[in-house]
Specification:
- The protein has about 210 residues and is an alpha+beta fold.
- The protein folds into two domains: about 80 residues, Glutaredoxin (3-Layer(aba) Sandwich); about 110 residues, Glutathione S-transferase Yfyf (Class Pi), Chain A, domain 2, CATH 1.20.1050.
- It is built from ten helices and four strands.
- Strands 2-1-3-4 form a four-stranded mixed β-sheet, covered by helices on one side.
- α1 links the parallel β1 and β2.
- α1 packs parallel to α3, α1 packs across α7 and α1 crosses α10.
- Bound molecules: glutathione.
- Glutathione binds next to α3.
Length: about 210
């Protein structure tokens, strides 16, 4: 059975799973169902969320679990993704947790806060504190887990892509003013597998602004 990803490219988590599949040089079908239907909730994700993943061996939900599965299943193909040493593997897991528990909530809270309010200011400050942690890490390490690109880096690409696409130059300064962070975002966004994701015909939601990035 071909790999099936359920969801829409409006979701950064769906894009992250698609990116992991492409990094492993696999193809997939992107399918959408009514995610609150009994059929979807009983067979794919009882929480009624996207993405879900299916291949001949397994049906899975939760994007980071799916990415780990894909990286392990296709270990010998494409980019390694899990870290090349025992320490890198541990750091990859650590930074994937950071992605899930610190980075994603901070960027989502900022994106959903009402513009020019006290809560949007607080959300932005909170996001900047998270970015400071990334800047410090990336000033001593090429990638989050060490010398090689892993799932920890990959998990960030879609959310930064969306942030860059929907923000004006002033807002983007929180990225461009942190040189190591900015160079890393450019690096992880220039991978051929990411280009393949952005060039999928279903990817119509976040068009990059034309201003300088
Ligand atoms: N932790 C989940 C998050 C999934 C998630 O929140 N997906 C959103 C789209 S970005 C969704 O399905 N929202 C629909 C809903 O909550 O009804 C993952 O990483 O897969």
């Amino acid at each position: 059975m071909a790999i099936k990803i359920y969801g829409s490219f409006r979701s950064p988590f769906v894009m992250a799973v698609a990116l992991a599949v492409y990094e492993k040089e696999q193809e997939f079908e992107l399918l959408m169902m009514n995610i609150k239907s009994p059929e979807y909730m009983n067979n794919f994700n009882p929480f009624g969320k996207i993405p879900s993943y299916q291949d001949e061996d397994i049906t899975l939900f939760e994007s980071r679990a799916i990415m780990r599965y894909v990286a392990t299943k296709f270990e010998g193909q494409g980019a390694p993704l899990l870290g090349s040493t025992f320490s890198e593997q541990a750091l990859c897991n650590q930074w994937l947790e950071v992605n899930g528990h610190s980075f994603t909530p901070a960027i989502v809270e900022m994106a959903f806060s009402k513009a020019d309010t006290e809560s949007s200011k607080l959300a932005f400050e909170k996001f900047e504190k998270v970015l400071d942690v990334y800047e410090a890490r990336l000033s001593v390490s090429k990638y989050l887990a060490g010398d090689s690109y892993t799932l920890a880096d990959l998990a960030h690409t879609p959310l930064f892509h969306i942030f860059m696409a929907v923000s004006d130059d002033e807002k983007k300064k929180c990225l461009t003013s942190r040189p190591h962070l900015h160079a890393w975002i450019q690096d992880i966004s220039s991978r051929p597998a990411w280009k393949k994701v952005t060039e999928r015909p279903e990817n119509t939601f976040y068009k990059p602004r034309t201003e300088s990035q």
